[in-house]
Fold WD repeat-containing protein 89.
Amino acid sequence: MFHFRFRTRNNSHYTTSFQGPQIVVTPRCNTCVTSESAGYSGRLWMSVAMENLEDKFAALSVARRLQPGEPTYLLDLVVHTPGSGGGLVAACCSNRSVVLHDSHTLSLQGEFKGHTGTVCGVRFAHTSPGLLFSGSADGTLCAWDVRCPGSQAVQVFQSSPSHSFCSFDISCNDVVLCAGTEQVEEDSFLVFWDSRMAKESGGVLGVYSESHSDDITQVRFHPQDPDRLASGSTDGLVNVYDLGHGSEEEALLATCNSSSSVSAVCWAGKDYGRLLCLSHDEGLHLWDLAQMETEEPLTILSVPDARGSASLPGDSTLDYFVGAAWVEQVERLLVMGGTVRGELHLFDCSDQGLELLKSLQGGHSATVRCFQWDPAVGALFTGGEDAQLVQWKPGAEELESGKRHTLKSASALKLKAGRHGKHTGKREK
């Protein structure tokens, strides 16, 4: 049962409920997490796997690159690699299009057009990998059939005409979609839909309107619990919800304050019990949500400007953080940083801070906006403001070298990075 409290245009409230079929969630295979019965052999396997991963990262080099002729930024990307092969990389671009590439060759597989505003992200469905979702500032979420490149959206989800989305995600069982809006007058909204609704209905399942006071820049569902959701905002807050509870107030489990505009949120740790937050002023914060029911503080690590917290080789620098990813197979938290010239640095983030794993050069010539590590094929994918999609593999020699000059131009969209708002009115639990 989902319960949501709505706010109407006259500022009154009412509560509605949605009754759906019972959902049984089976966690995805986690072959690296050992049980107590595994004993020493399991711990040894983990140690070897971690060493192998570090070896892979240390040997990363450019394998392939693709640079479209049109000077568009790559804003976000996601990788899907089925067990049978035939993997895809989907990327959203500053020209409002969504493109598909073969994850092995980077060859263009298709393009989807339909959004009239900046595309804020892309996500593959978890249980129906033939579906790709995109969200946009035009106030819509679109579902695309990747088997039919160039076709129209098979589903379109929207809410109030005043809503402009700057983040979205889909639950691990593909049932619930959630989008975060830019600030609308005094409010910011988390909007929910049932993804199984027919195309013609497109009705909103519910809205949260009281937890954030500025643009909601990040929406991230828990990778294993479909009811658990985290959101981050330019108001400096990262909120954690349990959608199985009643009203928005009851659903709000924890509020963590980063004291600055939130740029990225990542679930991490054993059973994804931690949250990493990166801010637009390059702060780094790590919280342990297992402490929510205790008197212990949630904060494990908090660095207002983490760019100088890790040693870099020679005269290397760090201008910004791209994002973070939890590598479940070896239980490591990756953080990527970069420079405006295109150099990249890959870090391991632990309770003690950042440790450099690998510096990557020769791939990009401008700011990198997004990255994805694909453990299935052992490849790293990056995309940025030079319009390049780059594939990195251990020990690779670049097969096809394209132009690497910066493609910034007057035609590229001026994209909103988010204000560095601060909010101290709410306490960390």
